[in-house]
Amino acid sequence: MRRRRVIAGVAALLFAPRKFVAQQASAKIPRVGWIWLGRSARNPVAGFRQGLKEFGYIEGRNIVVEYRFGEGRRDRIADLVAELVERQPDVLVAIGDLTVRAVKSATTTIPIVGLAGDPVWLGLVASLARPGGNVTGVSMMQGLEGLTGKRVELLKDALPAATRIGLLFVPDNPTAVRSLAQAQEVAGRLGFVIRPFPVRSDEPEAVISAVAREGVDGVDIEPIQPFTSYPRETGELPVKYRVPAVSELRQIAENGGLLSYGWNAFDAMRRLAYFVDRILKGTKPADLPVEQATKLELVVNQKTAAALGLTIPPSILARADEVIE
User: Fold this and answer.
1) Is residue 320 assigned to a domain?
2) Which of 232, 217, 203 is closest to 42 using CA atoms?
3) Is there a contact between 39 and 202 (Cβ–Cβ < 8 Å)?
4) Residues 252-294: pLDDT tens digits?
5) 49 is in which domain, residue-wise?
6) Same-domain check for residues 175 and 313
7) Non-local CB neighbours of 21 within 8 Å, separated by 6+ positions
8) How far apart are CA 191 and CA 164, in angstroms?
9) Do 108 and 92 share a structural domain?
10) pTM for this predicted structure
């Protein structure tokens, strides 16, 4: 009896309808392309991988993710994007304004999950609620909520006597104009001067040392290259050159910057997995509203304050999510 059942089972497979066999053959592991301008040695993929795990995806088992890193070189992004698009993944994940724009320019058919500042202003989506097209993801709120202005105001609160605060920006970064406008609005209201410093070097020390020579009282380090690729090294420089710094990047404050205020990178990266999951299950990017990263953190480095002979006001310490002693 057992032998007849086995034979019957084999026969059922052999003579199964072609449609069923085709369906079985077409089942495949989904493939995701992931790209960031920064360095592979300092990459932010941990949050994304955690998010995938929460949705039941294990890399190499039921999903494949191909990672590409620009290593801080913007001239490499176009080639890396073209390489990923040619491989026709099921979803493309892009990190940062410049990268998301490059990916969007390269394909109108592959779904894109992006992490960008203000995707509406950047022309990536029609609106947050109804993205349209093939792009959705998470907004970092930089343009929407004026984070640059808030960081400059925090630095001024920490340095009441400051009259000149530098702002580091990349001239061709799409958000640079808005960031500078936010900072200048705050400066005009609080009575100090913003000194813009265009960043044209891939060496953080060359940039920070140049700012220090200008005699500013403090500096806002925007989340741009080369600082996003070298956050630890960048964090050590404000103490070395005695320039109090505020940044969106938590790692800069952890390693020597005076303050950081911005979105939680790990949490935002983790949330990108939600969009990947929905798209792999059939939802179109056009129908997935863009989310805003709402988890903001203020970190104060008291050790740096002591090294620079500064006293952080109690009002700032009371608001801090973390104080580094």
Assistant:
1) yes
2) 232
3) no
4) 999 999 999 998 888 889 999 999 999 999 999 999 999 988 7
5) 29-140+265-294
6) yes
7) none
8) 10
9) yes
10) 0.81
Rounded Cα–Cα distance for residues 59 and 64 (Å): 5
User: Both 58 and 79 in a single domain?
Assistant: yes
> What is the distance between the alpha carbons of residues 325 and 302, in angstroms, rounded to a whole number?
5
Nearest CA to 176 among 196, 156, 193, 204?
Answer: 196
Residues 62-117: tens digit of each pLDDT: 999 999 999 888 899 999 999 999 999 999 999 988 899 999 999 999 999 999 98
Instruction: Report the distance separating Cα 203 and Cα 209, nearest Å.
Output: 10
Buried b (16+ CB within 10 A) or exposed e, 105-133: ebbeebbbbbbbbbbbbbebbeebeebee
Regarding whether 132 and 273 lie in a shared domain, the answer is yes
Query: Could you identify the residue written with the tokens 């779904």?
Result: 111
**Exposed e or buried b for every residue in 274-295, given b needs 16+ CB within 10 A?**
bbbbbbbeeeebeebebbebee
CATH of the domain at 113: 3.40.50.2300
DSSP 191-209: T-EEEEEE---S-HHHHHH
Q: Are residues 303 and 198 in the same domain?
A: yes
In the chain, the N- to C-terminal Cα span, in Å, equals 76
Identify whether residues 127 and 160 lie together within a single domain.
no
The CA angle 140-183-129, to the nearest 5 degrees, is: 30
Provide the β-strand partners of residue 36: 69, 95
The reply to whether 163 and 124 lie within a common domain is no
Query: Do residue 97 and residue 35 come from a single domain?
Result: yes
